[in-house]
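Our preliminary data section would be incomplete without showing what the modeling component actually yields. Below, a chain of 157 amino acids is followed by its predicted structure, encoded as tokens that our downstream tools consume directly.
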Amino acid sequence: MTLRRSVLTAAVAGGLSVTLLAGCKSSTSGSGSAPGPAPTGIGGSASSLASKAQSAASSALSEISGGVLAAGDVTAGPVVIDADGHAASQLTVENKTDADHDYTVSVIFDDSGGGLQDVVVVNVSGVPGHGEARATAKSNRKLSGSLTAKVSAAVRH
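Predicted structure:
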């Protein structure tokens, strides 16, 4: 692993460790989202959940080679509760570079009081240079109430 990759992974994983409490899922998207399997064994202490979430995020990020922090390239739209009871937010990824890139994005869902409810990781493939792509961040579990979605980290690679 190169020094640049080590520093990038540590920086993003460190930022995620502060916000990750509820689990992590990857989904691949070109024009939408294909959710990965829901995590199993969600029970346990908050520290156990944080450890599992941090491990999942670190694992996803460790596969990234030559990435650049790019949270400013991604915006999360309003949260809606879909037919199956999961929170969903449309992501817009704006690639400000000349070349096509993939993005790995961490999204947190908060309740109206600012309490963390869930965390997901979304992979957005093939965002064209100076172009946009959309994807959907979908919660791992059923959520309700007034929720917001925030991009907590993004890596362009």
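Residues 3-156 form one domain. The first strand starts at residue 28 and ends at 29. Preliminary results of this kind motivate Aim 1 of the renewal.
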